[in-house]
């Protein structure tokens, strides 16, 4: 059976393609998702995608996630830096998680260097653009393979 991975995007990630390309690249979210789908299939993973600009909706997606996936790759956007609600919802999900950021958040403004979800994630990838999602999916595949034997 293929491992199912949910790729979850948070606030403002729907504006990719219009945001600062020096930080976030020039792909739109649907182009990025198409690339990530390709990576997932190459790695024999079964991907699903979700994006929301509403924090409560994002939390509800995390609550529902154990019903439809084995792990999550999440880029919560700016929520990463302050949303204890999303941190708690991720903990409730109990799912293995990798945090991804297109930009190198640890090398940008002071406030972006804080991640309230990092302690719950077994992996964190940043500053590698869309290729960072491939790296995250490899981490997920290896972790699930190890956990399930
Ligand atoms: C981001 C980095 C965040 O600081 C920012 O608020 C985003 C995108 C990234 O992918 O680099 O919206 O998560």
Topology:
Blueprint: E1 3-11, H1 21-24, H2 29-42, E2 45-51, H3 55-64, E3 71-77, H4 84-93, E4 97-101, E5 123-126, H5 131-148
Parallel strand pairs: 1-2, 1-3, 3-4, 4-5
1,3,4-trihydroxy-5-OXO-cyclohexanecarboxylic acid binds at residues 12, 75, 77-78, 80, 101-103, 105, 112.
Summarize this structure as a short list of keywords or feature phrases.
single chain, 149 residues, alpha/beta, 5 helices, binds 1,3,4-trihydroxy-5-OXO-cyclohexanecarboxylic acid
Can you walk me through this structure?
This protein is of the alpha/beta class and 149 residues long. The protein has helices at residues 21-24, 29-42, 55-64, 84-93, 131-148, and strands at residues 3-11, 45-51, 71-77, 97-101, 123-126. The protein contains five helices and five strands, in the order βααβαβαββα. Strand 3, helix 4 and strand 4 form a beta-alpha-beta unit. The structure holds 1,3,4-trihydroxy-5-OXO-cyclohexanecarboxylic acid. 1,3,4-trihydroxy-5-OXO-cyclohexanecarboxylic acid binds at residues 12, 75, 77-78, 80, 101-103, 105, 112.
């Amino acid at each position: 059976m293929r491992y199912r991975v949910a790729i979850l995007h948070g606030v403002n990630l729907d504006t990719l393609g219009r945001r600062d390309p020096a930080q976030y690249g020039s792909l739109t979210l649907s182009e990025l998702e198409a690339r990530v789908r390709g990576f997932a299939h190459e790695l024999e993973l079964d991907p699903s995608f979700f994006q929301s600009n509403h924090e409560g909706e994002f939390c509800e997606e995390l609550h529902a996630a154990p019903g439809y996936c084995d792990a999550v790759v999440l880029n919560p956007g700016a929520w990463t830096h302050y949303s204890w609600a999303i941190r708690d919802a991720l903990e409730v999900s109990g799912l293995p998680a990798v945090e991804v950021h297109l930009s190198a958040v640890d090398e940008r403004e002071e406030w972006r260097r804080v991640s309230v979800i990092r302690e719950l994630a077994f992996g964190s990838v940043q500053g590698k653009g869309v290729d960072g999602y491939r790296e995250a999916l490899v981490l997920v595949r290896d972790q699930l393979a190890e956990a399930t034997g």
